[in-house]
Task: inverse folding
C-alpha cells in the first residue's frame, strides 16, 4: 500500500483498485478521440430556448460573462441552484437550456435557476495560464467567477441568497460541482454530479482528457492544473478531496448510467450509431470513476450522499434530465 499525503488527505492506492482505474483510463483514452462531445452525445431532449429566462451579464477578469436566469414561480430569492454545462459548453446558451426542460420545471418547484454560459473545456476552474494551443488570450478563472463575481452580483442586483445554494452538473460540470461544494461550503450546501469524471488522477485519465480538450476548442490541459499529481491537479480531483465533502456535511446526489443503451437510444442512421458508440464508451468510464468515488467516500464511514445507478443509460442529455427530475424532491428539501 502506498499513501500520498495532500494537505492532510491520505490518498490510498491499492493494487486491485489501481488496476481497475488503469483499465478505465485506457478505455477512455480509446473512446475520447472519437467522441462528438464529452458532456453530450446520443439523442437529446430538444427543449430549446426558453423565453422565460433573461440574460444576466457580470464583469469578471475574463471580461463580461453571460448567465441565464430563470426565476422561481413564487418570486422567492432564497432557493438558488447553479447548473453547470459539459465540455463543449457554448457561448450563446447552456446545454441545460438547449437540451432539457429543467429551466421550465425547476422554477415550478420555486427554485431560481442560474445557468452560466460559456467555459468550453474549462472544468469551471481557475487555470494556471492561458492555453498556448488555440490562441486563448484570457486565462480562465471560472471558480473565482462563480464563487465571487457572479455570487456577489446575484445578491446585490437580484437579492439572491448567496448561501445554502445547490449546484448540479453533467460530465465536466459534474466534477466541477463537487469542487465548488468542497471548497465553498457556505455557498453550496447541495451538489449533484451526473456522469461525472470523479477520479481524474486515475492512470490514463489525464491523457484521455488532453485529447478531449484539444478536440473541444483546442485547449491545452497543461495550462489548466499543471503536471499530474501536482498540488493543483489533486485539489481538483473529487476522489482525492472526498473526505472534505464528508466533513462539510454536503448533501450529494451522484449518478451514472450503466453504459448500456436503453429504448430511447434509437439508431436510425450510421451517424446515430457513431454517436451512440461514443456515448456508450464515455458513460462506461464515467461509471468506473463514479464507483471509485463512492468507494472512497464510504471508506470514511457513513456519508450524506445518494448514489444512483440506472440499469441502462449512456452519455446523453435525456438521461441527465431524468436524473435532475429524480433528484428534485431531495434537492428541494436541502437548499435555501
Result:
Amino acid at each position: 500500500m502506498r499513501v500520498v499525503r495532500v494537505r492532510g488527505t491520505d490518498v490510498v492506492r491499492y493494487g486491485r483498485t489501481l488496476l481497475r482505474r488503469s483499465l478505465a483510463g485506457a478505455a477512455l483514452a480509446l473512446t475520447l478521440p472519437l467522441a462528438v462531445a464529452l458532456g453530450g452525445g446520443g439523442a437529446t431532449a430538444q427543449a430549446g430556448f426558453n423565453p422565460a429566462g433573461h440574460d444576466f451579464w457580470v464583469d469578471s477578469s475574463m471580461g463580461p460573462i453571460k448567465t441565464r436566469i430563470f426565476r422561481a414561480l413564487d418570486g422567492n430569492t432564497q432557493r438558488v441552484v447553479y447548473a453547470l454545462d459539459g465540455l463543449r459548453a457554448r457561448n450563446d446558451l447552456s446545454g441545460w437550456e438547449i437540451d432539457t426542460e429543467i429551466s421550465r420545471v425547476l422554477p415550478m418547484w420555486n427554485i431560481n435557476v442560474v445557468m452560466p454560459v460559456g467555459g468550453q473545456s474549462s472544468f469551471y476552474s481557475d487555470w494556471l495560464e492561458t492555453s498556448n494551443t488555440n490562441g486563448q488570450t484570457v486565462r480562465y478563472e471560472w471558480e473565482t467567477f462563480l464563487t465571487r463575481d457572479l455570487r456577489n452580483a446575484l445578491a446585490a442586483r437580484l437579492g439572491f441568497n448567496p448561501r445554502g445554494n445547490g449546484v448540479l452538473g453533467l460530465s465536466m460540470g459534474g466534477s466541477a460541482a463537487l469542487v465548488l461544494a468542497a471548497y465553498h461550503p457556505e455557498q453550496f450546501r447541495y451538489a449533484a454530479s451526473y456522469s461525472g469524471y470523479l477520479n481524474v488522477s486515475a492512470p490514463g485519465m489525464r491523457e484521455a482528457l488532453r485529447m478531449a480538450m484539444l478536440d473541444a476548442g483546442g485547449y491545452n490541459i497543461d495550462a489548466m492544473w499543471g503536471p499530474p499529481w501536482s498540488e493543483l491537479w489533486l485539489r481538483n480531483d473529487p476522489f482525492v478531496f472526498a473526505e472534505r465533502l464528508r466533513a462539510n456535511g454536503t448533501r450529494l446526489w451522484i449518478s451514472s448510467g450503466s453504459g448500456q443503451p436503453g429504448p430511447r437510444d434509437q439508431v436510425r442512421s450510421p451517424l446515430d450509431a457513431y454517436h451512440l458508440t461514443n456515448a456508450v464508451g464515455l458513460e462506461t468510464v464515467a461509471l468506473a470513476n463514479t464507483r471509485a468515488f463512492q468507494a472512497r467516500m464510504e471508506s470514511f464511514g457513513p456519508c450524506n450522499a445518494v448514489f444512483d445507478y440506472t440499469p441502462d443509460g449512456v452519455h446523453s442529455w435525456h438521461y441527465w434530465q431524468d436524473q435532475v427530475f429524480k433528484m428534485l424532491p431531495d434537492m428541494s428539501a436541502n437548499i435555501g
Observations:
- Residues 1-45 have pLDDT under 50 and may be disordered.
- DSSP finds eleven helices and ten strands in the chain.
- Strands lie at 2-6, 9-13, 54-58, 65-70, 80-84, 112-116, 165-170, 188-194, 251-256, 305-309.
